[in-house]
Design brief:
It is a single chain. The protein is an alpha/beta fold and 654 residues long. The chain has 4 domains: 6-70, no CATH class; 101-350, Alanine racemase (TIM Barrel), CATH 3.20.20.10; 378-473, Methane Monooxygenase Hydroxylase, Chain G, domain 1, CATH 1.20.58; 601-647. The chain is 42% helix and 16% strand. The chain contains 23 helices and 23 strands. The strands form 4 sheets. Strands 4, 13, 14, 15, 16, 17, 20, 21, 22 and 23 form a 10-stranded mixed sheet that branches. An 8-stranded parallel β-barrel has the order 5-6-7-8-9-10-11-12, surrounded by 7 helices. The chain has a 3-stranded antiparallel sheet with strand order 1-2-3. The longest helix has 25 residues, at 437-461. It is globular and about 100 Å long.
Length: 654
């Protein structure tokens, strides 16, 4: 027996062959894919980095090609061309808005390396930034040191420094300014200003200074507290006035170049941007009136990603397009500047999530599953019951057998209520020692079978009674997947972030199972049981039945922002393999680079275990076992070979 997927419950049992179009609708692939992801006629997910269906990369072919090269799942696929397309979208949207509004200021984006600090990705973005006139943002001392190295030979590239700063951080910025870097420090708390003044005088440097404002406007969504008057970072209006007066006092007011704000990540409602940008523009105009040489407004991050494809105002979506975002930002700043009769400000954004999210897809293989649809052997159950003494025959088992045998389309609710009562009574009897384990096992099988029969009959009828709404989740399969949620999709675990998930092949087949996903960690939280659905979420995912001897691959999409750097080492599962894939002009795809995932030895080193010391310790123990006769010499050789190979192997299952 099978459970029909929720989204197909109204489809007739006798109808045309399942198509890739049905699958696209089922998983919402075209909605959240935004033209970057589609389905081939063969039923495989494709990536179209340039949003051009004629230039598609088949994900299943890539994974199979990697397997032939000895690179096994889980693997993170990065599409370098897609990164370029996202940057181009930003450039095009703001250029168009500037033209439409006859805006005299310029636009640039600085990529916040905190979004994903992996070297290969940062180098790729650095090279693309040269093409689009964009820059980089550093939010900590380590990130600053990395950015200074990344921009060697590119002194003109804008660098913005955010985050809390100590004396060493600011001294490094001042020296980088003297080196010729186009670098600007944002003052997050007033004490940083004095350090900037001190080191600027020491090295005789005229620095570029920005101030981050605590706006009354706030963001929306999970990170809305990043903005507002109670936000962690930024200066109050009184602080900003005091800072301008202090800079005037030391004859450095001309160094105040930028006003900055940050509403928070993944702002889903465009109205929040409108309010914040307007307020920030007025602060800019006032700073100009006070004599500052301020020429730039940094609107910070917050530009969101439509993870569920609904284009709506809720946590996993956004209710605006990049074109609307750019147009509103430019229009509102222009109006304020024109009214105040000040020059149009240059505009900077820190749109890291928008840039990076779509470019990475985690592919994992399914290792197996748990099912809850074993068919009961009613004849065997009756025989076992009759073999017991009358006083030891548990009544709940008889009640469940009766409920199972009398199911019809007309009595589904009554049967379900009877089954729940009998199951609960059975659990109580077992807990008190009045029911044997085999009888309890029969009760479980009967209850699951009753639930499944009720669900299938309800779906044939075309409606699901309120009492049965929990059945699809209760009876869903558990698919065990070769990855760690904590390492590769930590936001899914930590803050209930929804990521689009879909099989990457067999999409020309109708899914006949529903399930939740469990990873291979030993933690009960290591699972995904919330999935994207337009303007809401669903508790189960439509999946295919597993075929003996054939791999089944799932893709977790839009994981390019934050997930790699936030991942932890739960159960010592390390970084996955990362493969950079590029589309070639001849219509084929190629692998630019393979970044091998962590070995066991490397991960152990992160937690201060020395692999060589572990090897020596085990070797001594093995030799003692051989000496005392507990191990044969051949067995000891095999064990040590396994141990040494394991140390250099992948932390995931191969």
């Amino acid at each position: 027996m099978t459970v029909l997927p929720q989204n197909t419950k109204k489809r007739s049992f006798i109808e045309a062959r399942w198509t890739a179009e049905d699958t696209a609708n089922l998983y919402g692939l075209r909605d959240w894919g935004k033209g970057y992801f589609g389905i081939s006629p063969s039923g495989h997910v494709t990536c179209m980095p340039a949003q051009d269906p004629t230039r598609a990369i088949d994900l299943f072919e890539v994974v199979e090609g990697l397997r032939e090269r000895g690179v096994h799942t889980p693997v993170l696929l990065r599409f370098d061309d897609l990164l370029e397309q996202r940057l181009r979208e930003l450039r095009t949207a703001f250029d168009q808005a500037i033209t439409d509004n006859e805006y005299s200021g310029k636009y640039t984006c600085v990529y916040p390396v905190k979004v994903n600090q992996q070297r290969h990705l940062c180098e790729q973005i650095r090279d693309l930034n040269l093409k689009f006139g964009f820059g980089l943002e550093a939010g900590s001392k380590p990130e600053l040191l990395a950015v200074l190295a990344l921009t060697a030979g590119h002194n003109h590239m804008p660098i913005v420094c955010n985050g809390f700063k100590d004396s060493e951080f600011i001294e490094t910025v001042i020296l980088a300014t003297k080196l010729g870097r186009n670098i600007l420090t944002v003052v997050e708390k007033y004490s940083e200003l004095e350090l900037i003044i001190e080191h600027s005088r020491r090295y005789n440097v005229r620095p570029q200074i920005g101030v981050r404002a605590k706006l009354s406007a706030r963001g929306a969504g999970r990170w809305e507290t990043s903005g507002g008057l109670r936000s962690k970072f930024g200066l109050t209006m009184a602080d900003i006035v005091q800072a301008s007066e202090r800079l005037r006092e030391v004859e450095m007011l001309d160094c105040l170049k930028m006003i900055h704000c940050h509403l928070g990540s993944q702002v889903y409602d465009i109205r929040n941007f409108k309010h914040a940008v307007t307020e920030l523009a007025y602060i800019y105009a006032e700073l100009r009136r006070l004599g500052a040489s301020c020429d730039t407004i940094d609107i910070g991050g917050g530009l969101g990603v439509d993870y569920d494809g609904s284009q709506s105002a809720w946590d996993s979506s956004i209710n605006y397009t990049i074109a609307e975002y750019a147009a509103d930002v430019v229009y509102r700043i222009k109006n304020v500047c024109d009214d105040a009769k000040v020059p149009h400000a240059n505009i900077v954004s820190e749109s890291g999530r928008f840039i990076a999210a779509h470019s990475s897809v985690l592919i994992c293989n399914v290792l197996g599953r748990t099912r809850f649809d074993v068919k009961p052997d009613v004849k065997k159950i009756r025989t076992e019951l009759e073999a017991l003494e009358p006083e030891k025959q548990p009544q709940p088992v008889f009640d469940l057998v009766d409920a199972y045998e009398r199911i019809t389309d007309r009595n589904l609710v009554d049967v379900y209520h009877d089954a729940i009562q009998a199951r609960d009574e059975a659990m109580s009897l077992f807990s008190l020692g009045y029911m044997s384990l085999p009888m309890r096992a029969h009760c479980e099988v009967l209850f699951w079978s009753i639930g499944r029969e009720i669900l299938e009959r309800s779906m044939r009828i075309g409606e699901l009674a309120e009492e049965f709404e929990g059945l699809p989740v209760l009876l869903s399969d558990i698919y065990f997947c070769n990855f760690s949620v904590f390492q590769s999709a930590p936001d899914s675990w930590a803050i209930d972030q929804l990521f689009p998930i879909s099989p990457i092949h067999r999409l020309d087949e109708q899914p006949t199972r529903v399930g939740v996903l469990a990873d291979i960690t030993c933690d009960s939280d290591g699972k995904i049981e919330r999935f994207v659905d337009k303007r809401e979420e669903k508790k189960i995912l439509e999946l295919h039945d597993l075929k003996e001897g054939e791999p089944y691959y799932l893709g977790i999409f839009l994981v390019g922002a934050y997930q790699e750097v936030l991942g932890d080492l739960h159960n010592l599962f390390g970084d996955t393999h990362v493969v950079h894939v590029r589309f070639e002009e001849d219509g084929t795809w190629s692998i630019d680079e393979i970044v091998a995932g962590d070995t066991v030895a490397e991960v152990l080193g992160y937690v201060q275990f020395d692999a060589d010391q572990l090897l020596r310790t085990l070797r001594r123990d093995v030799e003692r076992a051989v000496k005392t006769g507990r191990l044969e010499a051949g067995d000891s050789k095999a064990l040590m070979a396994f141990y040494e190979d394991g140390m250099q192997g992948y932390t995931y299952l191969e």
